[in-house]
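Supplementary Text 2. Reproducibility record for the structural model of the 303-residue chain.

All settings were left at their defaults, and a single model was retained for analysis rather than an ensemble. We include the record here because the model underlies the residue-level annotations in Supplementary Table 4.
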Amino acid sequence: MNIIRGLHNLTKYPGSVVTIGNFDGVHIGHQHMIKRLVEKSKSLGLPSILISFSPTPQSFFGHQQAILSNFKQKHQLLAALGLDFHLIIKFDQAFSKLSANEFIQQVLLDKLGMKFCLIGDDFRFGAGRTGDFTLLKEQGLLAGFEVENTHSILCDDYRASSSTIRKFLSQGNFKSANKMLGREFSIAGKVAHGKQLGRTINFPTINIPIKHKISPVLGVFAVQVNIIGEIFNGVCNIGKRPTVNGENILLEVFLFNFNQTVYGEPTSITFKKRIRDEQKFDSFNALKAQIELDTKTAKDFFN
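Retained model, structure tokens:
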């Protein structure tokens, strides 16, 4: 799958099949959509193009949400589904003022030569969110492109959606979240230098910065960590570390039976069980005593 960063890098296409959205998490509903798009792409002999926006319209308008997958994770998941292109449009003040009809004409038709459009049943676009399935159908009759509405995919009677997955994750309900994702929930990143405070209480941790201000999971968890080609069990705290007056969200993992220097190494943390909420302790000794209990809880879970 090729990435096209910005409309200025887009060459004119004689024809394409298109879907549009954030696709955070690439959950089972997204997977259903993309498989249908790829199927249509092959039947028409046209390239498949997924359009997303950076930042997301929600973030641009001040409604930031926790993300379920970083860019690298999303790219790998989308590529595995057989997409040809991922077009990332910069969402700025000028673009936000583009009307729904202007977006259809200037981007979907003039740039992409769109012949088929597949959208979710709650999709809205254009300034003031005035564009929807009905408008696309009307324009399709005039401009000669087909529009298909992919209806909601249900998972245990819940509509598969990123917001529902965030809710499950915040509750520690990994079974339901993972079923809707179609895989186990994980956070990926590179190991960064920390303040090494954990070493002072005999609990050295590896630290993963959380680039976004909001995390879908907060608290203490039993986790499995994929690093340097191996899988290690551990206990993880993700939050602001109130005991040391932390301000930014940080993911810290104490790995069992691990004693290596891994700064800069890529890693993936898979969340297995929620243990407790993050809390502030009166002293490092109290924090150490609680970590000992958390470690026992996590080890009992893995055993």
